[in-house]
Amino acid sequence: MRTIAGLLRLFIWNSGLRIQQSMEYRADFILGMIISLSFSSIGPVVQYLIFTQTKGYPGWTAVQIVLFQGVILFWVGIRDMAFGQLRSIIMDIFRKGDFDRFLLKPYPPIGILLSSSFSLN
């Protein structure tokens, strides 16, 4: 139980550090958030246009389609926020040959890797 609490604290600390790094250049941060929100809104808008301009999806209402898109966007957003940079971090660690330093830390290596994979985008 102590390990999980420590890894959670490490995740929160790493997340705060990544947010601070992203907010270092405020104009880039604000523009990135605007682009991210507009990109995420394309899916529901396209689904709504398809639904209203054609016969739609049999048995589905427009509200159900938008709700379905919203749930998918929510899930993908949570997944990418928690595990977004995990693949690139692991590839970088193995490319550099730094995995042995994770074996010396007091937490399990997979926990350290998962706690350092936060992505604000």
Please estimate the helix content: over 70%
Strand portion, in percent? under 5%
Major beta sheet summary: none
Q: What's the average pLDDT?
A: 82
Q: Whole-Å distance between the termini?
A: 30 Å
What's the β-strand tally? 0
Contiguous runs where pLDDT drops below 50 for at least 5 residues:
none
User: What order do the helices and strands follow?
Assistant: HHHHHH
Q: What is the overall number of helices?
A: 6
When the domains are counted, the total is: 1
Task: Tell me briefly what this model is.
The chain has helices at 2-22, 26-53, 62-83, 86-96, 99-102, 109-115.
Can you tell me about this structure?
By secondary structure, the protein is an all-alpha fold. It has one domain (2-115). The chain has six helices and no strands. The chain has helices spanning 2-22, 26-53, 62-83, 86-96, 99-102, 109-115. The protein is elongated. The mean pLDDT is 82.
Question: What are the SSEs and their pairings?
Answer:
Elements: H1 2-22, H2 26-53, H3 62-83, H4 86-96, H5 99-102, H6 109-115
Helix pairs in contact: 1-6, 2-3
Key features?
6 helices, mainly alpha, single chain, elongated, 121 residues
